[in-house]
Automatic annotation (TrEMBL):
Positions of the DinB-like domain: 19-137
Pfam family, one: DinB_2
Highest taxon listed in the record's lineage: Bacteria
Coiled coil start-end: none
Organism field: Gordoniibacillus kamchatkensis
Annotated protein name in UniProt: DinB-like domain-containing protein
Length: 154
């Protein structure tokens, strides 16, 4: 079920728009657009945030202990200095590596702590996190007029 949820939150449309579809065709200008009014994150900031947490998960799955020198959650919303296309490429790379790594896990691995709660719970949480922020990206695109007024999927 976790592998299926990994697919539908990233690149296989189901009941909601997956991340890859949400950012498809977004230009650097659109990615850095911020709605007027209250503080809201840009698409580029959201993708940076998602890349940060999924990269950290991958490090832990590889047995590495991430060192973030006291970064706060707010710090994770800093856009990639290499630019928008680099951030999207990184998002795709992280997802592919995560999907490959998860595909090699057995059921027992999902019960092991990583680092404190069971890996299966951590994975489920990060997938829900992706779905949440994917919805935000679609909403931002609707506000800026870069999301189709009508769309269909199979």
């Amino acid at each position: 079920m976790l592998r299926r949820n990994l697919q539908i939150t990233f690149d296989q449309e189901d009941w909601f728009v997956p991340l890859r579809t949400a950012v498809e065709g977004v230009t650097a200008e659109q990615a850095n657009w911020r709605p007027a009014g209250e503080k809201a994150n840009t698409i580029a900031e959201i993708v940076a945030h998602l890349n940060f947490y999924k990269s950290r998960l991958l490090q832990r799955l590889r047995g590495e202990e991430p060192n973030y020198d006291g970064l706060s959650n707010d710090d994770t919303f800093k856009p990639d200095e290499a630019g928008w296309q680099a951030a999207v490429a990184e998002m795709n790379r992280i997802h592919a590596e995560l999907e490959e790594t998860i595909g090699k896990l057995d059921d027992e691995a999902l019960d092991r702590p990583l680092p404190k709660q069971a890996l299966g719970l951590t994975l489920n949480s990060i997938l829900l996190h992706d779905a949440h922020h994917g919805g935000q990206i679609v909403y931002i695109r609707k506000l800026q007029g870069s999301w189709p007024a009508a769309r269909s999927f199979d």
